[in-house]
């Protein structure tokens, strides 16, 4: 028979975040180094940043490059999005 519950702890969906986005999106300018701070291509990390920022209603400034040893890096700074997400009526 169906019943109404007062509360229930639902399992979280997805696999969770591989990176500490909230830490890196604190407004400071972060330089993240390939094979030290992340294990994918810098372009892949930048794409992941934009997806994570959109969920948090943040805007990002990013830059990617290669250091003198040939390792990639990503520089990121998050900014509060001035315009709230809109829902079309």
Brief summary:
The chain is of the alpha+beta class and 89 residues long.
Helix-strand layout with pairing:
Blueprint: H1 21-24, E1 30-33, H2 42-55, E2 58-66, E3 72-80
Antiparallel strand pairs: 1-3, 2-3
Structural class per helix/strand content? alpha+beta
Mean model confidence by pLDDT? 88
What proportion strand? 15-25%
Largest sheet: 3 strands, antiparallel
Structure description:
The chain is an alpha+beta fold and 89 residues long. It has a domain at 21-80. The chain has two helices and three strands; from the N terminus they run H-E-H-E-E. It has helices at 21-24, 42-55; strands at 30-33, 58-66, 72-80. The protein has a three-stranded antiparallel β-sheet with strand order 1-3-2, with helices on one face. A hairpin with a 5-residue loop joins strand 2 (58-66) and strand 3. The protein is elongated, with a radius of gyration of 18 Å. It starts with 20 loop residues before the first helix and ends in a 9-residue tail after the last strand. 10% of the residues are buried. The mean pLDDT is 88.
